[in-house]
UniProtKB/TrEMBL annotation, chains A, B:
SMART domains: HTH_ARSR (SM00418). InterPro entries: ArsR-like_HTH, HTH_ArsR_DNA-bd_dom, WH-like_DNA-bd_sf, WH_DNA-bd_sf. Residues 1-94 form the HTH arsR-type domain. Coiled coil: none annotated. This is Transcriptional regulator. GO terms for molecular function: DNA-binding transcription factor activity. PANTHER family: SLL0088 PROTEIN, TRANSCRIPTIONAL REGULATORY PROTEIN.
């Protein structure tokens, strides 16, 4: 099982591409068949499939084939690793702001 | 001023690199001078400066030079655009789950 940093890495690499991000945005609304996903992009199907494979490898999407139709879904909790990382940075930055605030309070001469 | 999608794009591209992500993590704790930032990486200074420039262009960090010392800080609210985007995807995905839930409730035969 990939560790937290490997997972974060592959999720961010996957989302750094605008086409893949648009696919994730579309799938957050509902699952879709591949032809539906391809429609908004002027892109050959093999290129789209390559993006989908990368999203699947990053654990962001999952797909099922029934007959000749492949349906792609956003994997539940797919973006949790990014939420977690952002939360950690925010906590660090808030602590930093608090320390700065405390410093300013201490540095301000008291009114007498 | 860059629009939301341009900003999101440059932030995600910046964070897709593990070195740049490590710099952001370090700066979330406190501002740092360039030599401090360079210390954990076995990397030539020009490469580090290139990463810092990319982070600065993405609006993630800001830097100030005093004499020969450059101090780099995380820009307040730097990651807000990513928070916003994640929130939007989560809202969409939750609505999808709610609709599925409603569908299941409707599809379940009532007990008589």
């Amino acid at each position: 099982m990939p560790n937290y940093y490997d997972k974060l890495d592959s999720v961010l690499r996957a989302l750094a591409d605008p086409t893949r991000r648009a696919i994730v945005e579309r799938l957050a609304k509902s699952p879709a068949v591949v032809s539906e996903l391809a429609a908004p992009f002027s892109m050959a199907l093999p290129s789209l499939m390559q993006h989908l494979r990368l999203l699947e490898n990053a654990g962001l999407v999952t797909s099922q084939k029934q007959g000749r139709v492949r349906t792609v879904s956003l994997r539940p909790g797919a973006l949790d690793v990014l939420h977690l990382w952002l939360g950690e940075q925010r906590t660090s930055a808030e602590r930093q702001a608090d320390r700065l605030g405390m410093h300013l309070i201490r540095a301000t001469p008291k009114e007498t």
